[in-house]
Amino acid sequence: MTDTDQHSFTLVITGAPYSSQAPQTALSFARAAVAARHRIDRVFLYGDGVHLASALVTPPSDETHWPNAWARFLTDHKVAGIACIASALRRGLVDEGEQKRYELTASNLLSPFSIAGLGEWVEGTVKSTRTLYFHGG
Amino acid sequence: MGMLIVIDQPAYGTWAGREALDMAFSLAAFDQPVSLLFTGAGVSWLRKDQDPAGIDQKSVAKNLAAAPVFGIEAVMADRASCQRLGLDAGDMAAGVTLVDADAQLLSQFDQTAFSA
């Protein structure tokens, strides 16, 4: 990749924060890509990666708050952060719409993340020039 | 030639393979060309007559049997992995092609995604 190549990236994160390094490696990549004038089209959370979008994550105060760090990046750079709905519901991550639909006692989706289907990932793989995967294992 | 989804995780004990299969079905549902490659511990998906009721699981073979219906272009198994796990053609569900999962195979696809 030379300096003149402009890329647009879809990032897929499948590893959870605090049990894998996937979200922080992905964030380091995203910051470097933006600094090099590439574009991040969207970030898609899949499998255990959806835990990154939980508003209830509360690490000790001397540790990096990865959901908040990612939320800040998404807001600052106007990047869509999407959690797969099937992965999210299985793992206890719901927005207000799903809370109502399933009559749950609470919702816990961190802004500006949203919940949507795998079609968002498919669209990313088609539209972006590169799709990168950040796995937990 | 579209995307190759590589399932290298065992059929039971982890959800990663199932979620990778969902990705393949989703691509096919949106008319994107997609093929499946089972390799490593992932070839355990292909054993026929699976009965995981004893571990309160549904058979992944049933999910996989829907691949042609969804329009998955090919279901492939890595030959060396099958040999290592004692799986010969007679043990395998129908419709699986034995291949050598090498650089030449991967180069036939535009994108590759792994289960993990």
TrEMBL record, chain A:
PANTHER family: PROTEIN YCHN, SULFURTRANSFERASE TUSD
Protein family according to the UniProt entry: Belongs to the DsrE/TusD family.
Subcellular location: Cytoplasm
First-level EC class: transferase
Keyword field: Cytoplasm, Transferase
InterPro entries (alphabetical): DsrEFH-like (IPR027396), Sulphur_relay_DsrE/F-like (IPR003787), Sulphur_relay_TusD/DsrE (IPR017463)
Full protein name: Sulfurtransferase complex subunit TusD
EC identifiers of the protein: 2.8.1.-
Keyword field contains Transferase: yes
Species of the source: Marinobacter qingdaonensis
Gene3D superfamilies in the record: DsrEFH-like (3.40.1260.10)
Xref: NCBIfam families: PRK00207.1, sulf_tusD_dsrE
MF term (GO), any: transferase activity
Presence of the UniProt keyword Cytoplasm in the record: yes
TrEMBL record, chain B:
Top-level taxon in the UniProt lineage: Bacteria
Pfam families assigned to the protein according to its UniProt record, in alphabetical order: DsrE
SUPFAM superfamilies: DsrEFH-like
TM region(s), chain numbering: none
Gene3D superfamilies: DsrEFH-like
Family: Belongs to the DsrF/TusC family.
Name the record gives this protein: DsrE family protein
Source species of the chain: Marinobacter qingdaonensis
